Amino acid sequence: MKNLLVVLLIAAMFGACSNGKKSAADSSDKAVSIAAAGATFPMPYYNMVIKNYIKEKGVLVTYGGIGSGGGIKSLKDKVVDFGATDAYLSDEKMAAMPSEIVHIPTCLGAVVIAYNLEGVEGLKLTNELLEGIFMGDITKWNDSKIAANNEGLNLPDQEITFVHRSDGSGTTYIFSDFMTKISTKWADAVGTGKSLQWPVGIGAKGNPGVAGTIKSTPGAIGYVGSEYAFAQKISYAMLKNAAGNYIEPSIESISAAAQGAMPEDTRVMLTNSDDANAYPISGFTWLILYKEQAYDGRSKAQAQGTLEFLDWLISEGAQSQASKVNYAPLPEKAVAQAKTILRSVTYNGEALLK
Amino acid sequence: MKSDTITKYVLLLSSLVILLVSAGMIFSLLGDAIPVFEKFGWRFIISTDWNPTEGRESYGALPFIAGTLSTSLLALIICLPMAFSTALFIAEYFKKSSFSTVLSSMVDLLAGVPSIVYGLWGFYTLRPFIVSLGLDSQGYGIFTSGLILAIMIIPYATSLSAEIIAMVPNELKEAAYALGATRMEVIFNVILPNARSGIIASFILAFGRALGETMAVTMLIGNANIIPTGLFSTGNSMASVIANQFGEADGLKMSALIAIGLLLFVITGIVNAIGKLVIKKLS
């Protein structure tokens, strides 16, 4: 027994030594492994492309879906090579990081308004109706305001049950950001955030929780991440966008939301886009990393490996896979901007990507 | 060393570990809960505001305390007569019958079913049933949660009470029967006085389980952070809000969630203390 322990101890020490050597190795050493953590919303996409990357390049990448907050914290504590978040960092939060960080958009998702009404398909909602329903002013499905906007639909005399998230979530952030933009009443009473003080409704945990509760509760309406709603074939409403068109959420209409002008650092909420074909509750999801990669004794190979993976992630090869798992790929312009940002990332002041 | 001494030290060590763990838990809960009490003071316990939106942050635990206590008390009220009569049935009235053996193993089985299973059953079967009875239009809320909690703790209280009732010395019962007592009289004059403190202890344990129950409640209570306004109102419980919101929490919100954990700890402590007091008074 004792002998076994000694052997294990020695083995562990050797292991530690060889690890130490690897991190100090020169830049030609390709055997880096990249660690990342953050948002759960894009996780199915990241998992899929990471698998392909490992197969193609033999570089080990791991991603932990611990939530956007966790992703930011992990990068701040420097325990990951890059983090992932559904809400970009405010100037204040950026200043609170140990050094300058950059945002890289990776794909787009949306929030769909799902409902459960037997025999009702193609519900159309305007901003006023959304405000009325989610603030609790409209309480019945056959309310004259809903009926006036949905001629031909047989709306039942049923109570509206709003189902929202009970946990903190980037999905809630995008949804509430949109509501804040379209309704001053919502902006005053509720505001934008990952978890909120809800005026009405019941809470359920995670996208599966909300979708499940809507499915099993006649008369329910709620918001669900598009990647989940598309996979689940749940009924969802068409929304009237800023240009006045009723738009159904789809990969194309979500992508269209990112067609407009964007700030150079890509920190922008795409909700309520004025593009004529854009679905109004769409948004980017980002990866975040330090602009200066030489920190905490990181090897140049580690930094190079990280950057190469990110460059590959926004390339055609990876982006074309996004719609397979129900995310919208970045439009060309956003890819170009992301590439420029990646090329501004340095190691000891030298750009890592050419 | 003598084997006696070794035994003594082993026992001492494991007891010390328990002490250390509870002290450590209280210490870390207290430490992390301080920021929220510094900011809101006692208002944290009596405020009904739970607003995690950045810039408007304000935390009050009263809705969750109310939700936890109301669902657990409702569960206890439903559980008391049911568990007590089942325990009597198993341990006294039909002690030797094969039906009681089956029943008793069913009760033990139910006591061991994980709470998520009760939650699923409650969500997909009990809730639609309540809706179809016309009691409530959606079926989420205090009543459904209390009912599922009652169903969860009945086997627990039954199993423990039955053990206690079965432990009442046969000589006492036989003596009572010899004096011409009826079965009812034996139950109320011999068994109950003998088993009283044990039965109460079993209900306190069951109540404690209801207080801390998370999964089944979170699936049925509606997770609306308001003080319940009635039996069929939605609400939220302390354990459920912690389970739901710790994932994305940081800073003050994390501290508020930990403070709720601390309050839950304190409430459970108070319930146990009251129970001990009642037992002491009665025996």
From TrEMBL, chain A:
<dbReference type="GO" id="GO:0042301">
    <property type="term" value="F:phosphate ion binding"/>
</dbReference>
<comment type="function">
    <text>Part of the ABC transporter complex PstSACB involved in phosphate import.</text>
</comment>
<feature type="domain" description="PBP">
    <location>
        <begin position="27"/>
        <end position="316"/>
    </location>
</feature>
<comment type="similarity">
    <text>Belongs to the PstS family.</text>
</comment>
<keyword id="KW-0813">Transport</keyword>
<comment type="subunit">
    <text>The complex is composed of two ATP-binding proteins (PstB), two transmembrane proteins (PstC and PstA) and a solute-binding protein (PstS).</text>
</comment>
<feature type="signal peptide">
    <location>
        <begin position="1"/>
        <end position="18"/>
    </location>
</feature>
<protein>
    <recommendedName>
        <fullName>Phosphate-binding protein</fullName>
    </recommendedName>
</protein>
<dbReference type="Pfam" id="PF12849">
    <property type="entry name" value="PBP_like_2"/>
</dbReference>
<keyword id="KW-0592">Phosphate transport</keyword>
<dbReference type="InterPro" id="IPR050962">
    <property type="entry name" value="Phosphate-bind_PstS"/>
</dbReference>
<dbReference type="InterPro" id="IPR005673">
    <property type="entry name" value="ABC_phos-bd_PstS"/>
</dbReference>
<dbReference type="GO" id="GO:0043190">
    <property type="term" value="C:ATP-binding cassette (ABC) transporter complex"/>
</dbReference>
<keyword id="KW-0732">Signal</keyword>
<dbReference type="GO" id="GO:0035435">
    <property type="term" value="P:phosphate ion transmembrane transport"/>
</dbReference>
<dbReference type="InterPro" id="IPR024370">
    <property type="entry name" value="PBP_domain"/>
</dbReference>
TrEMBL record, chain B:
<comment type="function">
    <text>Part of the binding-protein-dependent transport system for phosphate; probably responsible for the translocation of the substrate across the membrane.</text>
</comment>
<keyword id="KW-0472">Membrane</keyword>
<feature type="transmembrane region" description="Helical">
    <location>
        <begin position="256"/>
        <end position="279"/>
    </location>
</feature>
<keyword id="KW-0592">Phosphate transport</keyword>
<dbReference type="InterPro" id="IPR051124">
    <property type="entry name" value="Phosphate_Transport_Permease"/>
</dbReference>
<feature type="transmembrane region" description="Helical">
    <location>
        <begin position="102"/>
        <end position="121"/>
    </location>
</feature>
<dbReference type="GO" id="GO:0006817">
    <property type="term" value="P:phosphate ion transport"/>
</dbReference>
<feature type="transmembrane region" description="Helical">
    <location>
        <begin position="141"/>
        <end position="165"/>
    </location>
</feature>
<feature type="transmembrane region" description="Helical">
    <location>
        <begin position="64"/>
        <end position="90"/>
    </location>
</feature>
<protein>
    <recommendedName>
        <fullName>Phosphate transport system permease protein</fullName>
    </recommendedName>
</protein>
<keyword id="KW-0813">Transport</keyword>
<dbReference type="GO" id="GO:0005315">
    <property type="term" value="F:phosphate transmembrane transporter activity"/>
</dbReference>
<dbReference type="GO" id="GO:0005886">
    <property type="term" value="C:plasma membrane"/>
</dbReference>
<keyword id="KW-1003">Cell membrane</keyword>
<comment type="similarity">
    <text>Belongs to the binding-protein-dependent transport system permease family. CysTW subfamily.</text>
</comment>
<feature type="domain" description="ABC transmembrane type-1">
    <location>
        <begin position="65"/>
        <end position="275"/>
    </location>
</feature>
<dbReference type="InterPro" id="IPR011864">
    <property type="entry name" value="Phosphate_PstC"/>
</dbReference>
<keyword id="KW-0812">Transmembrane</keyword>
<keyword id="KW-1133">Transmembrane helix</keyword>
<dbReference type="InterPro" id="IPR000515">
    <property type="entry name" value="MetI-like"/>
</dbReference>
<feature type="transmembrane region" description="Helical">
    <location>
        <begin position="186"/>
        <end position="207"/>
    </location>
</feature>
<dbReference type="Pfam" id="PF00528">
    <property type="entry name" value="BPD_transp_1"/>
</dbReference>
